[in-house]
Amino acid sequence: MNNEELRDKRREFLKASALVAGGIMLNQFAFAGGHSSTDDTIKIALIGCGDRGTGAAFQALSTKQNLKLVAMADAFEDRLNSSYQKLSERFKDKVDVPQDRRFVGFDGYAKAIALADVVLLVTPPGFRPMHFEEAVKQGKHVFMEKPVAVDAPGIRKVLAAAELAKQKKLNVVVGLQRRYQANYRETLKRIEDGAIGDIVGGQVYWNSGGVWVKKRQPNQTEMEYQMRNWYYFNWLCGDHIVEQHVHNIDIANWVKNAYPVSIQGTGSRAWRTGKDYGEIYDNHAVELTYADGAVIYSQCRHYEGTANRVDETFQGTKGRTYLSAGHNGVLWDSKGKQIFNHPTKGNANPYQTEHDELFEAISKGQFKFQDAERAAKSCFTAIIGRYATYSGQVIKWDDALKADNSLFPDQLSWDANPKLMPDANGLYPIPTPGKTKVI
């Protein structure tokens, strides 16, 4: 296929995706017509302009394809302006976002989405279900960061949108980047082929010193404070078992090729106890029980000055494996003999690979990526883990999925109050196992 034929196919692909935005599914023979652009440019919109959003845009614009950033949206003008400056300095010819295509506030996302072929959804995760639903409704291909939701109602919305995205043949890539990392791909390929037999147990970890804190500023409304300090509020973040440890939990589900039927565990606030840390726990330890009886142990914590560990290890009936984002993917047989070792040295950056593969597929008119359902179920595994540690109960998957416990505010405006508010001392209610009800 020559370059002109490739451009024509890509234009038809993008046009067809847009035509189904009204909810009418086109059959495979309806991929006809031209792209709105007269060249082969793929137009992208950035929704969420913080550090991770700016990074995602950087990676998208670093692909081989002819991309142009044409719209940006963020709740905060200062974050949007900072992101715009960084991106326009680095990609002078690929950033075309005049003032009238920079949307500030809670409702700008839909306007930005409408201007693009592909959208990057990189806001705090509490907004992800709403933004993903809108992107699919408008017929756009999507890159979205993990996690994709923070509660059961959000997961249900993402699952529904994921099914519609399949019908519309919209590519969706989710930023669980280990799925795009060579040592994981090569090791899992061998596990799936039976190299270490059936997986009967495992351990996954994200133990670290924690992340940033944004101090409360004078004259901030409660909504702005929580939005700025979003990591510590569940309606925005989901707790660090969801926002961060989901990476390792996703590997557990990948290795098992299944999702847990029940989860139980324990957690608390032992180190990060002050008012700056909102409502979330600083440690979680849960057991993921699968339908075949296998149990995988999951641990995450945010303690400074303690041993860090971020990796995954699993035991099979014929051997075991060790995986890590920064180390090799290794397999041993039942006698301890190493049978495979894939080094990370020389591997491509998986954050970049996500975008390279997504935009290559779009440029070729291929429907190749359907990450949303799988990612939603791994995120829900982490959410159930939070339900289990907060309540102290054994939580069953099917029961949790039916829960109608939306954490999202009833109204989005700077003077509206989130559902969780501080007391007179500035402290937030903390979940108490045995008392807190989650579903």
What does this structure look like?
It contains 13 helices and 15 strands. The longest helix is centred in the C-terminal third of the chain and has 21 residues, at 371-391. The chain is globular, with a radius of gyration of 22 Å. By secondary structure, it is an alpha/beta fold. It has a domain at 183-344 and 372-402: Dihydrodipicolinate Reductase, domain 2, CATH 3.30.360. A hairpin with a 2-residue loop joins β11 and β12. Helices cover 33% and strands 19% of the residues.
Write the layout of secondary structure elements.
Layout: H1 3-19, E1 42-47, H2 51-61, E2 67-74, H3 77-90, E3 102-104, H4 108-113, E4 118-121, H5 128-137, E5 141-144, H6 152-167, E6 172-174, H7 182-192, E7 199-208, H8 222-228, H9 240-243, H10 246-256, E8 262-268, E9 283-289, E10 295-302, E11 309-316, E12 319-323, E13 329-333, E14 338-342, H11 350-363, H12 371-391, E15 395-396, H13 397-401
Parallel strand pairs: 1-2, 1-4, 2-3, 4-5, 5-6, 7-10
Antiparallel strand pairs: 7-11, 8-9, 8-15, 9-10, 11-12, 12-13, 13-14
Helix pairs in contact: 2-3, 5-6, 6-12, 10-12
Which properties best describe this structure?
alpha/beta, globular, 439 residues, 33% helix, 9-stranded mixed beta sheet, Dihydrodipicolinate Reductase, domain 2
Quick description:
The chain has 439 residues and is an alpha/beta fold.
Strand order of the largest sheet: 14-13-12-11-7-10-9-8-15
**Helix/sheet category:** alpha/beta
Measure the end-to-end span: 54 Å
Secondary structure tally, helices:
13
Cα gyration radius (Å): 22 Å
CATH architecture of the domain at 183-344 and 372-402: 2-Layer Sandwich
Instruction: Supply the CATH class of the domain at 183-344 and 372-402.
Output: Alpha Beta
Q: What does the main sheet amount to? A: 9 strands, mixed
Helix content estimate = 25-40%
What proportion strand?
15-25%
CATH superfamily of the domain at 183-344 and 372-402: Dihydrodipicolinate Reductase, domain 2
CATH fold descriptor of the domain at 183-344 and 372-402: Dihydrodipicolinate Reductase, domain 2
> What are the secondary-structure elements, in order, as H or E?
HEHEHEHEHEHEHEHHHEEEEEEEHHEH
Low-pLDDT sequence parts: 19-38
Query: What shape does the CA trace take?
Result: globular
How many beta-strand elements?
15
Nearest-integer average pLDDT? 93
Protein name: Gfo/Idh/MocA family oxidoreductase
Domain GFO/IDH/MocA-like oxidoreductase: 185-320
GO molecular function: nucleotide binding
Domain Gfo/Idh/MocA-like oxidoreductase N-terminal: 42-166
